[in-house]
Amino acid sequence: LAEPPGRALVERLLLLSRWESQVWKANGCVDITQHGDGRLLRNMMHNRRVYDWAPESWVFPGDGALEFDFTSLARPSKGAKPIADEVWRKLIATLRTQLYFASKKVWNRAFAVVRTRHFLRSLGAKARKARRQSIELEASVAADAAEVAEATEADAEEPMTTTASVARPSRRPKATFAGVCRAAAVQESDESLRSQDVLCVLRALSGRTWILCRHLRELLFLFRDPGRRLDCFVIMYPRCLDWPINGKSCQNAFSEANWERLRQRVGVVPLFPFFQPESTTFAFDMALNEDRRCLHQLLRLSGVESPGGGNIKAPRIQWRKPGTEPKWETFQGGIPLSWENFETIPTVGLIELTYLCSPEKVKFRARRRGAAVVGGWGALPEDTNELASLVQWTTLLDDAPKEVVSLVAFIALKYSRVEEVWNKWDPPGGKLILKEFLVKMAGIGARAVFSAPCLAGGDASAPEGSLVPMPSRKQTAPAEEEPDAADELLISVFRFFDVDKAGELTKSQFTSLARIMRELRQSVVDFRGHVLNCFRTLQEAWWNAPKAGGPAGDMSFLEFQHFAKEVHFSGPVGHIFYLLEQDRNDCLR
C-alpha cells in the first residue's frame, strides 16, 4: 500500500464493489457478501493478520501488504449464447496438444526404465544385458531432464511459483513407478509453466465468450496440477450460462479439501447448488452472512417442496458461545419454524444438515426464484418445462452411500439405462414394497454385489477416502457365513430411495439412480482423458503401466489403483476398475 499503483488498485476495486452492490440491490437481490456489509472484498488480511474494515469506510492503511479476494456479482444477461460444441472440441484438442505433446520424450523414456526393470524378473540368463540397457536408459532420462530444465531456466524471464518441483536430478532416478514420476518432474514443471500461459489467455478471453458446465468440466481435467485447476475454475465458472443448474457436476473435479478452498475463495453462495441440492450434506457457519443466506434458502425451499421441513434430514448444531464447550446437539422438534425469517436466524454456531427430496416433489419455480433472488441468476428461463430439460441430474459419488454406488455400477454393466430394470420388473400399481424389492433384486443377481466382506464391513487397509475393490461378477450367491449381509445392504438402499418414509418405492425414485450412473460413466470418460493427457494412446499407457507380469501381463486392482495414484487422478478408482474389468478374472487385460 505504500506504492501508488497498489493504492490506486484498491481504490478502483472499492469503487467497483460499491457500483456492483448498488446494481445488485436495484435488481431485487439480497446481500450475499461474506459479512453482510455489501463489500465484495473478502478474506481480508493486512500484514498476514485478519483485517476488520468498517463497512462504509474508504480509509485503509497507508502501508503494508493488503491481501483479499474479490468476487464479482456480474451475471449473464438474457440472450447470451454458449460457444458452439464444434469450436469447443477444437479448442480442447489444441490445448491438450500444446500442454502435453512437447514433453512426451521425458515421460516415455522414463517409463522405459520401468519396463526394463520388469523384464529383469523374467529374463534369467539375460539379466546382465537387460541391466546394462536399464542403466543406459536411466542415464538418458537424467540427460533429457537436465536439458529441459536448462531450457526452462533460460526462457523464464521472471520467477514463477509452481506446485511442481523443478530440480536437476543429482543421481540416476530410482527405477520404480514413483521414481519415474520424480524423474519426470521437469515435465511437470514445464507443464506448469505453459499451463500458466494458458490461464493468462483464458483470463483475457473469458469476458468474450460463454460456456456450459460440461465444457468447464472438460477444461478442468486438462490441468493435472490442483492449483492450476483451481485458478482455471475461478476464471471460467462465472461464464457458465447453466451454472446454478448443472454446476454440481464440476465439483467432482476437485477433492473435498480443494472444494472447501474454493468456497472460501469465491464464496458460499456462488457455489450453492440451487437446482440440485439433493443428497448433499451442508455445513454452515452462522456467524457469516453468506452461510445464513444459504441456510435460509434451504429452509424456504423445504417449506415449499415438503411443508413442515420434511426434506431437511439429520440437522444438528454446535453452539460456539464464549465459555462453553463445543458439542453437537440435535433438534428434537426439528429446525424452528421462526428461522424461515432470515432476521431470526442465530448468528453463532455451526449447523450441519442433509437435503433430500423426492423427484415428484421438485418445484422448479421455487428453485429458479432462489437462484434469481439469492444467486442473481435472473436470466434463466422462466418456463418450468424448459428448466427441466436443461437439468443434467448429478449425484456426487461421495454423497451417496457406498452400497448405492456399488449397485449402480452393477446395473451399469448389464443395462444401458436404469429405466430398463424397472420396465423389466413392471410391478403392479407402479410401486414396490421392501419385500418385493428384495425379491426383484435377487432376481437380477444384485445380491452378489454386496456379498464381499469388504463391502459389508469396510476395508481397513484402504487409504482414507479411497474406494475398496469391487467383488467379482463370477460370485453369484452371498457368502454362506453371512447369509443376511446382502439383504441388510439392500434394505439400506431401499431406505435411501424412500425419502418420504412411505414404505414404497416408485419408478421416479428408483430411476433417480440414473444420476449416479451418469456420474460413474462420466468418471470413466474423465479417466480416459486424463490418461491420454499423460500418454499419446491408451495402448501406450497400458504398455507403460507397471504390472507384475510385465508390460504384456494382466493388471490387478492394486496395480490399477497405484497407476491412478501416480498419474495424479482423483476419482472413483474402484468403481472404474469394476466397470472396465468385464468379468476377466478380476484383472484387466
Describe this structure in words.
Helix 2 runs antiparallel to helix 6. It contains 23 helices and nine strands. The model is unreliable at 102-107, 109-126, 151-193 and 452-483 (pLDDT under 50). Helices cover 48% and strands 7% of the residues. The chain has 589 residues and is an alpha+beta fold.
Give the fraction of residues assigned to helices.
Answer: 40-55%
The SS-based structural class is: alpha+beta
Main sheet strand line-up: 4-7-5-6
How many β-strands, per DSSP?
9
Calculate Rg over CA atoms.
27 Å
Largest sheet: 4 strands, antiparallel
Q: How many helical stretches?
A: 23
Q: Tell me the β content.
A: 5-15%
Shape: globular
pLDDT < 50 stretches: 102-107, 109-126, 151-193, 452-483
Task: Supply database-style keywords.
589 residues; alpha+beta; four-stranded antiparallel sheet; three-stranded antiparallel sheet; 48% helix; globular
